[in-house]
Specification:
Oligomer: single chain
Number of helices: 12
Distance between the termini: 21 Å
Helix content: 40-55%
Structural class: alpha/beta
Shape: globular
Bound molecules: pyridoxal-5'-phosphate
Strand order of the largest sheet: 1-9-8-5-4-2-3
Number of strands: 15
């Protein structure tokens, strides 16, 4: 068995499509149109087709995508935005930066995504938007969330950073909201070779606004209609993402197959709880996350065996020092707090070999027996 099994292996993927990537990079370098080169709009078109949305606007990261989406919807001072606490910090930090208040809602214990019931409880007169996160590649339960948003006249921004190609009731995620944000952080299901992101929407006005906002508030070179940001998608990253997009469906299929292999091998263990895929969901397994008895001891044991694991995420946002000012107590979000102490992410990437997965499962079984 290999010396070290990483949680993610970006090199394995590069070597599997090396020619495509090298050609894409070389092409951009030869043209030197590094900023807003044609590859940007080419990739935007391809990605909007992939998702079946009308508009896709490339931006500098997933965080910036969320920020621009909220900003363009007018979220600001005195507004509240409902988010899960069990997510990456970016989902909440942009709310705070816009002067609005993040309101944390607890998650569903099966899917780990925001609970529609808890959203309903968190709504006030100030609620302006909800950001459901399709966490670990599994969609949030969008139908009730869409109904709540309609009833209360509030926006939805889907955080699709971990869910490129995931489906909810047979429709691809990114289609259930006013605007959706994607991240192409290198380790995501579709990853760039640096920071990159995308805002998608079916609303032309909003798409046009994001296009102007990301590029210093301008359409022409030195006329700035509004005060904008330097949030463009690099041409190089767009070219790399175009080269990789053709493989995304295959990679997602591989991830689903590997998750299935883990499930089959680990299902007899009483000490772990396996990920659930709801009947209405098609997960793209950005992460393979189990709940494990003696989680920390298991992690140390696996580490000794050369197996890297992760925790996504160890400290919920409502417990983070940065959000202390909001005044949450640990048990305000019981499921979130409980889950954070149970979960562990096992190695999963499309190129991981069956033998490696089998070895990891064997080590987990050895630990408990
Ligand atoms: C990665 C991630 C982000 C942020 O994306 P970046 O491209 O790293 O800025 C936001 N939300 C979630 C759920 C993420 O996993």
């Amino acid at each position: 068995m290999k010396q070290r099994i990483p949680l993610v292996d970006l090199k394995a993927q590069y070597y599997s499509i090396r020619e495509d990537i090298d050609q894409a990079i070389e092409k951009v370098i030869k043209k030197t149109d590094f900023i807003m080169g044609e590859e940007v709009s080419i990739f935007e078109n391809e990605f909007s087709k992939f998702l079946n949305v009308d508009y896709a606007v490339g931006v500098s990261s997933g965080t910036d995508a969320l920020h621009l989406a909220l900003y363009s919807l007018g979220v600001g001072r005195n507004d509240e935005v409902i988010v899960p606490s069990h997510t990456f910090t970016a989902t909440a930090e942009i709310i705070a930066w816009l002067g609005a208040k993040p309101v944390f809602a607890d998650i569903d214990e099966k899917t780990y995504t925001i609970s529609p019931k808890e959203i309903e409880k968190a709504i006030t007169k100030r609620t302006k938007a909800i950001i459901p996160v399709h966490l670990y590649g599994h969609p949030a339960d969008m139908l009730p969330i869409v109904n709540i948003a309609k009833k209360n006249n509030i926006f939805i921004i889907e955080d699709c950073a971990q869910a490129h190609g995931a489906k909810y009731r047979e429709r691809i995620v990114g289609n259930f909201s006013d605007m959706a944000a994607f991240s192409f952080y290198p380790g995501k299901n579709l990853g760039a070779y640096g920071d990159a992101g995308m805002v998608v929407t079916n609303n032309k006005k909003l798409a046009d606004k994001i296009k102007i906002l990301r590029n210093h508030g301008r359409k022409e070179k030195y006329t700035h209609q509004i005060i904008g940001f330097g949030n463009r998608l690099d041409t190089l990253q767009a070219a790399i993402l175009s080269a990789k997009l053709k493989y995304l469906n295959d990679w997602n299929k591989a991830r689903r197959r590997i998750a299935g292999r883990y499930n089959t091998s680990l299902k007899s263990l009483e000490e772990v709880i396996l990920p659930v895929e709801q009947s209405w969901a098609e997960s793209v397994y950005h992460l393979y996350v189990i709940q494990a008895n003696k989680r920390d001891e298991l992690r140390s044991y696996l580490k000794e065996k050369g197996i890297e694991t992760g925790i996504h995420y160890p400290l919920p946002l409502h417990m983070q020092p940065a959000y202390k000012y909001l005044g949450y107590k640990k048990n305000d979000l019981k499921i979130t707090t409980y889950i954070a102490e149970q979960i562990v992410s096992l190695p999963l990437y499309p190129e991981i070999e069956d033998d490696t997965v089998d070895y990891i499962c064997k080590c987990i079984k050895d630990f408990y027996h």
